[in-house]
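Lecture 7 notes: from sequence to structure.
We start with the chain below.
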Amino acid sequence: MTESDARLAARLAERAGELLLDLQRTSDLTGKELGKAGDRESNEWLLRELSLARPGDAVLSEESADSPARLAADRVWIIDPLDGTREYGMPGRPDWAVHVALWQRGDGTGGSITDAAVAQPALDAVYASDTMHSRDMLATSFANTPLQFLVSDSRPPAWATAVAVELDGELVPMGSAGAKAMTVLRGDADAYLHDGGQWEWDSAAPVGVVQAAGLHASRIDGSPLRYNLAHPYLPDLVICRNDLAEAIVVAIARAVRPG
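Predicted structure tokens for the same chain:
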């Protein structure tokens, strides 16, 4: 039987994660050089496997030159072979991930992420869109007090503190977009807030997984996230519990445009 796109995404993310763990254990490299090697080796392996499994599909990868041919394709894999390169090169950091997502054109809708997987190898975890049924099935409670808002540990949004104050929450720094999104998915945090620069490969797979689980994912103004664009830049993002989405978007608007 042909492997489904979601199962392929999960298998590739998991195996690339295993490759990265092996490299960490066996390489003499450290820090940035280890991160560069991980990016390169994971990317080469994923591209090879995708060419074998889905030879007619286009690929957009952080670690490869972009091709305008993908803009005419009906199926585009959007991959981040190592999300959280800096954290991967730091001993003991679990907040890095592998992203594999499939964008499909659809019927005049502008296309969407239809299948996705995020692997967190250091946690021995793989999250895939075809196994996400309900956010309630993944978390034991929503009782984080105060609310936990995940932000980048290297470039948190300028408005994040104001949002946290307004909503009686606290900011929690973490690396890797995928790691932050999956933390919200597990119910260990309430929202992931980002501004100041991301690319499609940073969020495509995490968004595909969390949306399959019924969570909210949008731009910070509440507008939809769009993928496979000519310039694959997506500067901002909100992933959160649905019951918090409106309050967070309103609080961000107040913080961005005070008065």
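Points to note: Residues 129 and 247 are 26 Å apart (CA to CA). The chain is about 35% helix and 20% strand.
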